[in-house]
Amino acid sequence: MTEITDQWEELVKSAGEIGAQHGTNAAAWWEQENLGGRAPGEVKASARRVLRLLDDCDTDALGLPGDGMAGEHADDYAPRDLCTELGIAEDGDDDSGSLVTCYQDAFSSAVESAVSQHAHSIVDDA
Q1: Terminal-residue alpha carbon distance, the chain
Q2: CA 24 to mean position of chain CA atoms
Q3: CB-based burial label for 120 (10 Å; 0-12, 13-18, 19+)
Q4: pLDDT single digits (tens) 80-98
Q5: Is 95 exposed, middle or buried (0-12, 13-18, 19+ CB in 10 A)?
Q6: Short-list 25, 19, 9, 7, CA closest to 85
Q7: What are the structural domain ranges in the chain?
Q8: CA-CA distance, 100 to 19, in Å (whole number)?
């Protein structure tokens, strides 16, 4: 039983690490369009708005990138991709669903954290 538990813990950890890396990468693209070199308007004002919306937990208004697990686009990273990367079969059971949830949680947290850090660096750079 311990071997199965150890394997499960490793899968959960890996799913979270993959989600966090993908979230950080997605945030970098979002930042370029909204707070970086391609951002329209006054960047410092935009960064303040971003921080205010993050503080209000209104991430929908920011249009932050999603994890793509819903499969809205053909090339989105999907549950089958996560299962393949983890080396397990996608069988639609609760276990693979739990791993997808770990991925999604880590992705969202990484996006919000990276965007917040970047916005703070702009606002604090006075």
Answers
A1: 56
A2: 6
A3: middle
A4: 899 999 998 877 666 778 9
A5: middle
A6: 19
A7: 15-124
A8: 9
